[in-house]
Amino acid sequence: MLLKRRSEVMAQTTRSVKVWVAPPRRRTARAWLAAWVVLLLVLALGLSQVAIAQFDAAQSAVLKVNATASVVPKPQLPPQDIPELSALSLVAPAPDSDSSRLSRPAPGFGHLPYPEANPQDLMIIASYSQAEEERFERLQQEAGLALLRMIDAARWDGIWLVPVSGFRDQERQRMLFERQVSWRGSAQEAARSVAPPGYSEHHTGYAIDLADGLSQTGDIDLNFKDTAAFRWLTRHARRFGFELSFPPDNPQGVAFEPWHWRYIGSPHARVTFAQAPKR
């Protein structure tokens, strides 16, 4: 009886105890969206890697083709066609030969030969003229800075110095010289006022033609000698490293040019014009 009662109590207790089991979690829409985003990113990364690999392969193929195309073999002469060098072929031609006359520079007619400056060494100092005729004048760095200081000093004294022509290459000098030849009738007469190409101090980037901005005279004119600007230059130009290139009765036989001044204020400039005779 006692055992039966105990069995009933235990069975009742078991029925009254409910075991709670958590229900399975359901995936929400946000979780599914995140999963798709991750999947798409993985796919995109894989496709980009494939595209990069294909691009690298194509680029390597192009470089190989270009390298192959750029290598052009030099033509080789057969041994019997190669001329032998002799002692006579290494000797300069005689002075009276045709090749010597062709390579000989044109006469300077009193002007001295000068090398052409490297345009990269020049600085712009001013612009001259207007509209289609406007051009930017340039000088060597040290000459340009000295000229600007001289122009500023002259302005304090009421003088307006105008840079008219600085550096000239041989092509422009040739054009000016040929124009002068057509006016004067001969190269020798033209050289009295314009140097032949290859013989102009303007090639060096150390020479400058100046004018008086307050005068009614022409910019490149002999009457410049009568202006206040020329009188100021004769007193002060040397202080800034400039000297008159062609004074009256100069040893080179070049006509008096009161507008033409050269810079000798640096060691390189002095070496450049060391060959010029002094009066």
Termini, distance in Å? 156 Å
**Runs with pLDDT <50, length 5+?**
13-25, 61-106
Based on helices, strands and strand pairing, what is the structural class?
A: alpha+beta
**CATH topological fold name of the domain at 108-127 and 144-272:** Muramoyl-pentapeptide Carboxypeptidase, domain 2
Helix count, DSSP H or I runs of 4 or more residues: 8
Chain oligomer state: single chain
Strand percentage lies at 5-15%
Radius of gyration: 45 Å
The CATH class of the domain at 108-127 and 144-272 turns out to be: Alpha Beta
H and E string: HHHEEHEHHEHEEH
Quantity of strands, as a count: 6
Which architecture of the domain at 108-127 and 144-272 would the CATH scheme give at its second level? Answer: 2-Layer Sandwich
The largest beta-sheet arranges its strands as 3-4-6-5
Shape, per Cα inertia axes: elongated
Mean pLDDT, all residues = 76
The level of helicity is: 40-55%
Largest sheet: 4 strands, antiparallel
Based on the model shown, name its key terms:
alpha+beta, two-stranded antiparallel ribbon, elongated, 279 residues, 8 helices, 11% strand, 4-stranded antiparallel beta sheet, Muramoyl-pentapeptide Carboxypeptidase, domain 2
